[in-house]
Amino acid sequence: MKQGFMIQEQWSAVDRYFTDLLVPSDTALDAALDTSAAAGLPPHNVSPNQGKLLLLLAQLQGARTILEIGTLGGYSTIWLARALPPDGRLITLEADPKHAQVALANIARAGLAEIVELRLGRALSTLEQLATEGSGPFDLIFIDADKPSNPDYLAWALKLCRRGSLIIADNVVRDGEVVNAASEDPSVQGVRRFNELLATERRVSATAIQTVGSKGYDGFALALVTTD
């Protein structure tokens, strides 16, 4: 137990080192974390380093339209929205009214209210509504909501994408439990099914990266849509 604590301390120290060097303090982002914590939201937001990675990936993608599944307090939303051009748009989906209220305030404080649209409701229902409305195709889709629904989120993401779109899914390692086929954790099983679907989906080229840091041991999947 002591060794595990020491390893986590080292991971967090390295995260702080890179954050201090490469991710300067930002008033709006810091406030988003502070207000989320004060409101009692779960600390499931991405780390600053991971937020910067999302911004860079969106910029590399040249994204003009982004869909985020799972808003929480809007921290990752702010990172992604900042990668958009002035006429870009980001739609973020959140099921919890309290989370949505906090997120909207954080997004407005960051000056992004004109770019970001928050849709309140169960993501599976909202995704169907987006498809019915003819929304999309989105250049980038970030999946970071309830993990048991990840397979369904992937199916909808593929309907709302185009060739060249990028799909990113967070938390696909689950402290290494992803390799445990006998796990009774619905989140682990949801992630396993998501990964298996990526492996057999002919329309994408995908990989997954393990990460360590202040958020512990986890990882994310990247899938490029290569054909319609």
Helix and strand topology:
Blueprint: H1 2-22, H2 27-38, H3 48-61, E1 65-69, H4 75-81, E2 89-94, H5 97-109, E3 116-120, H6 123-133, E4 140-143, H7 150-159, E5 166-170, H8 186-200, E6 204-213, E7 216-225
Parallel strand pairs: 1-2, 1-4, 2-3, 4-5
Antiparallel strand pairs: 5-7, 6-7
The helix/strand order is HHHEHEHEHEHEHEE
Number of discrete domains: 1
How would a crystallographer describe the biggest sheet?
7 strands, mixed
Instruction: Say how many strands there are.
Output: 7
Q: Would you tell me the overall average pLDDT?
A: 96
Strand residue content: 15-25%
Strand order of the largest sheet: 3-2-1-4-5-7-6
Distance between the termini: 49 Å
- Return residue spans where pLDDT drops below 50 for at least 5 consecutive residues: none
- Portion of residues in helices? 40-55%
Molecular structure report:
With 228 residues, the chain is α/β, with parallel strands linked by helices. It has a single domain, classed as Rossmann fold, CATH 3.40.50.150. The chain has a 7-stranded mixed β-sheet with strand order 3-2-1-4-5-7-6, with helices on both faces.
